[in-house]
Design brief:
alpha+beta; Arc Repressor Mutant, subunit A; three-stranded antiparallel beta sheet; about 65% helix
């Protein structure tokens, strides 16, 4: 029996969000985006003492989980929270933590 068959869709979604949030840099990005409407990747790379390639990997993980979304405004990318998924993550975490 595979893990996907033994778990619910809700459990899989909360685990995916938790995995994406499982690094301090990603938490910093999410906190920053929750306080402002959007942010450009170049601005983030100026704020964080990490390589641009490392930041790109963290942004990719958050995008793949659906917590953020990027919009190309050549030559930059503007990142914002994916409000729908961000709200879903909050609900799922609250529900899970009340168990």
């Amino acid at each position: 029996m595979s893990i996907e068959l033994a778990t619910t869709d809700e459990q899989q979604r909360v685990a995916r969000y938790a995995k994406a949030m499982g690094h301090p840099i990603r938490m910093y990005v999410l906190e920053l985006l929750s306080k402002q409407s959007c942010c450009y990747s170049g601005d983030l790379s100026e704020d964080l003492p990490i390589a641009k390639s490392t930041l790109s990997q963290h942004l990719k993980e958050l995008r793949d989980a659906g917590l953020i979304q990027g919009e190309i405004e050549s030559p930059r990318i503007k990142y914002c929270l994916n409000q729908e998924n961000w709200k879903e993550a909050q609900v799922l975490f609250k529900k899970f933590l009340k168990l």
